Amino acid sequence: MSEHLEIEQKFDVDPGFERPSFAGLAGVTAAGPVLHHLSATYFDTADGSLAASKITLRRRTGGTDAGWHLKLPASAGARREVHAPLGPAEREVPAELAARVAEVTGGKPLAPIATLDTERTVVTLHSGDGRVVAEVADDLVTARRLPADGGKGGEGADGGKGGEGGEGGTVLRWREVEVEVPVADPALQRAAADVLLAAGARPAGHGSKLARLLDA
User: Fold this and answer.
1) Is 85 exposed, middle or buried (0-12, 13-18, 19+ CB in 10 A)?
2) Pairing mode of beta strands 78-84, 67-75
3) What's the pTM value of the predicted model, to 2 decimals?
4) 129-156 pLDDT, tens per residue?
5) Looking at 45-105, which runs of residues are DSSP E strands?
6) Span 153-193, pLDDT tens digits
7) DSSP single-letter state for residue 202
8) Which residue in 27, 1, 10 sits closest to 196, CA to CA?
């Protein structure tokens, strides 16, 4: 199990948004884009204890950080992210992660509540000495609420083929852009945000993809 601080800015964009170039940022070179296909299943209690505490718990495949991800509130614009390996069990939350949220769940079981499939295009920003200073992720998202039984008989835990699923058969699709930095860099973060805003992006209306789905 590993842990790090996630520092990111999120932006809402229209389907036809043209991703701008970041090559003009001072001291930065841009590499990419690289395409990833991500599939995630989100877990919570039946009464939404984790969501109410702004905590997200997911099992995700694809991309460069496949595994279980537990995201805990840290500070404005940052969350504490705890990683655990995928393991063979798709519907059983790793004990070490369940223990981290036991006080919030109060012993109530954790079960799948939603699936999110994301087509992610990543542009990596490097400093003059080759260090990664930011990643810009352009995400096309397809999200589904799962029925109360956790999607048994419908979609699999990795968002596999199934019915339109979810509560009322709702499927939500949208596009968003995230800028994540490995360490806080206010000047770079402001500059990258300015480039996106000038291209037509808007500050995100939700703190996470799951929150957007649950509010729909």
Assistant:
1) exposed
2) antiparallel
3) 0.86
4) 999 999 999 999 999 999 876 555 443 3
5) 56-61, 67-75, 78-84
6) 443 333 333 334 444 457 999 999 999 999 999 999 999 99
7) E
8) 10
